[in-house]
Amino acid sequence: MMRKYFGTDGVRGQANSFPMLPEIAMKIGMAAGILFRHLGHRNRVVVGKDTRLSGYMLENALVAGFTSAGIDVFLLGPVPTPAVAMLCRSLRADIGVMISASHNLFYDNGIKLFGPDGYKLSNEFELRIEKLIESDMTAQLAGRCNVGRAKRVEGDIYRYIEYAKRTMPRSITLEGLRIVIDCANGAAYKAAPLALRELDAEVITINDKPNGMNINESCGSTHLIPLMEKVHEVRADVGIALDGDGDRVLMIDENGTIIDGDQLMAVIGESWHRRGKLQGGGVVATVMSNLGLERFLGSQGLTLARRRVGDRYVVEHMRTHGFNVGGEQSGHIVLSDFGTTGDGLVSALQILCCLKETGLPMSDLCHKFDPVPQLLKNIRISKGNPLESEKVRKAIKQAKRMIGKKGRLLIRLSGTEPLIRIMAEGDDRNIVERVVDDIVDAIAPLGDA
Predict the structure, then answer these.
(1) What is the rounded distance in angstroms from the CA atom of residue 92 to the CA atom of residue 290?
(2) What contacts 58, CB < 8 A, 6 or more positions away?
(3) What is the pLDDT of residue 169?
């Protein structure tokens, strides 16, 4: 069955356009409620959201769907995505829902679903929901005496803050650190600064005044210049940049240098390995992670397992093969000792813990390797698959010879847009640029064919 509603990370699109319509959100609630409902047991769902204007609309539609299926609804309000995953387990809910489009601008929104174990639903379960959405669910709804109830839960953000703080040893505080945090006007605008302050850091916040339409707008982990400027202005020790739903983090050192997810995973992986905490013999990342990370881990006797782009595939590999550190270059970092999904605050706390333990400045702590020159270009296509062209195949074959065994070449069709992505990396920047340009030149005339 083709997937009509769900993509690589739940259901996502522009608010009030297909598939992010109130009627579809209601049907998702109905379908998920029916599938998770157990007779003789009051089932419950926890629903969180970020700060988008359309969150109110979708939240109410989901409540209607879940209650019609006989599910009680706990409304958490604006909380980070990892808080929903954690509270799903803590409150013994059968389902968790996060209303968010992550790092996208306010006019987009999405619905992410979690099972009772706090992990995102499998592709198979999402297909079962889609099948129900396309059917008449009337006969499967709750009887008139079994309709669910909804209530707004107060104070559960503090459960998440305590959970995040407990990921650090009690002997370590953040006293003496001046930290700037960019909350992206998103879901973590309350929780993240408060957690840092309760750990005794001096905290300067920016972009912590959401108005429904400024989430991720020229701020957060996708727009780092405001954070870099603030770190320089107040002479901070470190800057932390979250995204709209708080499940990813990038950081800035005291010199204003960007620290991406690859460097953060290198720091955590090495630290946990040294303390005997690292499982699986290495780290799980995606095909986009820099070759420099792979070489650094190799120098420590560790491996880098690469998966498809998307934190879902990273987590699947971690669970199957026993890893406890994984993530993406973009800052999604999953630490399965603590949680089931990416958590920007918890990941940042692990780095700050290393900072306090070592006494090093961020610029030294988080420079574990020099990134190998890497270049990514996208070619938009209108129809067909130019990669099947003999001319393009020859260009790719020649590129692989030029890159050799000391570099990497990745060509893939985007899963979310009509694009072909060409990425190359290697020690010689000139060869990397030539390889990518040659493939782009071969594909470009065919892109509109």
Answers:
(1) 39
(2) 15, 20, 22, 25, 49, 99, 109, 111
(3) 93
Give residue-wise pLDDT tens across range 358-382. 999 999 999 999 999 999 998 888 7
The residues carrying an active-site annotation are 102
Low-confidence residues of the chain: pLDDT under 70? 1-2, 39-40, 415-417, 447-449
C-alpha span between 98 and 105 (Å, rounded): 16
Asked if 104 contacts 213 with a C-beta cutoff of 8 angstroms, the reply is no
pLDDT for residue 146: 93
> d(Cα 87, Cα 95) in Å, to the nearest integer?
10
Question: Which pTM does this prediction carry?
Answer: 0.93
C-alpha 242/C-alpha 26 separation (Å) is 30
User: Can you read off the two tokens belonging to residue 221?
Assistant: 């982990």
Q: Which amino acid is at 83?
A: A
Integer Cα distance of 202 and 224 in angstroms: 20
d(CA 31, CA 46) in angstroms, rounded, equals 16
Q: Which of 226, 231, 185 is nearest to 208 (CA)?
A: 185
Residues 230/171, Cβ–Cβ less than 8 Å: no
Instruction: List CB contacts of 396: < 8 A, sequence separation 6 or more.
Output: 387, 409, 411, 439
Q: How many CA atoms lie within 13 A of 134 on its CB side?
A: 11
CA-closest candidate to residue 72, choices 137, 153, 130: 153
Query: Where do runs of H (alpha helix) occur along 151-215?
Result: 156-165, 191-198
Q: Tokens 């019609």 label which residue?
A: 68
Q: Please, are residues 221 and 330 in contact by the beta-carbon 8 Å criterion?
A: yes
DSSP 101-126: -TTS-TTEEEEEEE-TTSSBPPHHHH
Residue keyed to tokens 């400024």:
214
Residue 366 burial by Cβ neighbours in a 10 Å radius (0-12, 13-18, 19+) = buried
